[in-house]
Amino acid sequence: MPMIGARVSRAEGEKHRKTLLDRGVLDINFKIAYDGDFIIFPLKEEISGYDLVEYNFLPLEKRKTSIREILSEKIPESYLLKLRAFDAIGNIALIQLSDELISYQKIIGEALLELNPFIKCVFRKDSIEGKYRVPKLELIAGEYTTETVYQEFGVRILLDVSKVYFSPRLSEERKRIASLVKKDETILDMFCGVGPFSLMISKKSNPKKIYAIDINEAAIYYLKKNIALNKTYNIVPIHGDSRKEIKNIENPDRIIMNLPHSSFEFLPDVFSTYKSSIVHLYAVSENINSVKKKIIELSSENNKKIEFITERTVKSYSPNTDIYCIDFAFS
Prior knowledge:
Oligomer: single chain
Pfam family, one: Trm5_N
Number of strands: 17
GO biological process, one term: tRNA N1-guanine methylation
Strand order of the largest sheet: 13-12-11-14-15-17-16
Distance between the termini: 82 Å
Helix content: 25-40%
CATH topology of the largest domain: Rossmann fold
CATH superfamily of the largest domain: Vaccinia Virus protein VP39
Organism: Candidatus Methanofastidiosum methylothiophilum
Number of helices: 10
InterPro entries: MeTrfase_TRM5/TYW2 (IPR030382), SAM-dependent_MTases_sf (IPR029063), TRM5-TYW2-like_MTfase (IPR056743), TRM5/TYW2-like_N (IPR056744), Trm5a/b_N (IPR040601)
Number of domains: 3
Radius of gyration: 28 Å
Largest sheet: 7 strands, mixed
Order of helices and strands: EHEEEHHEEHEEEEHEHEHEHEHEHEE
Structural class: alpha/beta
Shape: elongated
Catalytic activity: guanosine(37) in tRNA + S-adenosyl-L-methionine = N(1)-methylguanosine(37) in tRNA + S-adenosyl-L-homocysteine + H(+)
């Protein structure tokens, strides 16, 4: 159906667009038309001072603003309710899908690319496997690339998502721990990965030294790259088993134990190796009291006194479990 349009020269198009917009007569629900050296603006009503013409303007498609909106006509609503949030690590997206959604994975991947122009590829994350905690990945959309740079509170982290474990969801937790570190403290990061805790502490606090250990050689490779990238040269990267490596490290002021499924297995080694320290221990459990109870049991077995400082729920892990962090001192 023909509408009223204002016909102006291309050379003055932007000037008139602003004028019509300011005067409230430009109809932003329709596309601007181009006719040779002229532009025709869709109008809500007639306006004096312009060359007015009739024109069949095309409607402007409303940009979809959520992945569920994009997928609403492609995937059953009951399945969409099971769609989880994705993790953006640099320009790579990782998403876990329920069994019902796997057959729609390519559609979901393309929708993520459409909605997030900064994302270059989307991987389906299946499970985290082995002692290196490396996720099993399948490319579902975009170009295949696994190396990226993630940025967090001024810290740049280079990593390969197919070779190392990394969670962007702990960014606030890393910032919190860094804020607790006092000047000239010695820090032990027992399961450092590519170094997100160590890098944050080095950049945001003023520690004397940070010993960063990981059993995954690829993680230590990227940690060394990240030390150079961030100029955080008070970090000492160590490739090896934390149980053995801590025997050669001085008594730290603060210990980070971010291995939620296995931290308790290493706690007796910490108690037997060091006289005293502050510990930030992460654990997966059904409730926080179970975590505290286990810490008390292990400390008692190793003749250590415990003082609980802070306890917090870090994030949900499954329908029945959460990841908790307990900050405590032992002596």
